[in-house]
Fold this protein.
Amino acid sequence: MKTIITFFRLLKTAFILARHDALIPAEYARNVPMFMRFVGWFSRLFAVRDRAKNPGERFARALETLGPAYIKVGQILATRSDMLDPEFTRGLSRLKDQVPAFSRDKAVELIEKEFGKPWKELFTTFSEPKAAASVAQVHKAALLDGSVVAVKILRPNIHTDMAKDMDVLRMAASLGEFFVPASRRLGPKLFVKTAARAVMLELDLRLEAAAASELSEAAEDTGLFRVPNIHWDFSSKNVLVLDWVDGTAFSSDELLTGPKIERPALAIKVIQSFLTCAFDYGVFHADMHEGNLIVDADGELVLIDFGILGRLSEAEQRFHAEILYGFLKRDYQRIAEIHFEAGYVPANHTVEDFASALRAVGEPIFGKTSDQVSMAKVLLQLFEITEIFDMQMQPQLIMLQKTMMQAEGVARRLDPAFDMWEASRPVVEASLRRELGAEGRIADFMTDLRRAQKTLRAMPDAADNVAALAKAWAAGEVDLSKPANNTKPRAVSKGVVWAAIVAVTTLAGVWAVGQL
């Protein structure tokens, strides 16, 4: 029954897109195959007239009607004016922080239900909604001690609505893999699974508070950005209270015209703060669209909305820093070797062939600024290469790639001549000096030492087990020559057993010495 209901929701999704002339917009019909052109023509028979002229705005309004999960997709697309028609992304920009809000009265009702007391016992003032996003909205308020704060409140029924949206996206991903086999390599079902987990974590504001606290440590260490202070006593699962930030939102046109804003320097800060967090701390803000970035009166970059946090393991940090550094140095052989070492490329291919393919992508764009490079063409080439070399998309890295695209899109809007390579260089070089230099080697040695110690600590139990087995075997209670589960018999000599006993005993002795 749930599957049938989800299927009808999928049909509803297609119908809503058609009603907004957003399924295959008329403006782009000539760019699609004939069959899809026919689908677009047929869908427009159901379109309501006098919709917005901008196809991006029509698509955005359809996503707003569909729900929060769809809005998230639109927010990602809105940052890619270099890949999509700028007119289209301009229409999508309404999704960044202009989602329709629910009423102040409803917000007050939710707060009083959450804390079990009248709102005036928590705040002296509480404003109308200041900003609304896909899963929550923000009000400006003052605490009893006079502190000016931002109060973030989850949307009513958001948990139920989001679960329904994700069910539809799962079905769409499954149908896509079934009807378009070539899409399986990109792992749409795995991507939806990863996205669903991240989104559901976003629906607990206690976790967002913890994420903000974690990123604030990187902010303090690097000085590249700032995180608002959290008021833990006034925060819960459905409500988050943190310092109010006065400044200019990145989604505002004032950002592009304000005389006191140093846009090229700000663009560099956006990229470097993201890369530093990812490569040096293994944790990063994973939703860096323009609605989540502010420049304050001092010109400092401020990050807000920490509902989605990305993480990289130590190995992934190193691999991706080396890959980016390889492109900076045009060392395609090393980039290829890293892919093989990480297991991203199957061993039936050769490093040399993969290095040559990477060179074909890297050389045409090296040293060029963003306004000289079509990222759409670059990404198309990369996808073609990954298909040729049987590379599987890594679910744990999709979020990193998505956020890098967001950050680069934001930086490009600030500075059309933005040079991604030069902005990345200091961060990547510093990261590799630490990882591959003396400090990194010592850290690796200590990690290996801890692993060895953990293994040795397990030796006494292992020695007891082997000794018990040997005793039972010598007493005739166990016949090691008999097959298990009807497998072919295999003789086991006493020499092998005693050799095992001696080895375990020796290692146990080493462990014991280490404890002295």
Confidence is low (pLDDT under 50) at residues 486-516. The first strand starts at residue 123 and ends at 132. The chain has four domains: 2-95, 160-198, 247-436, 456-515. Residues 272 and 426 are 9 Å apart (CA to CA).
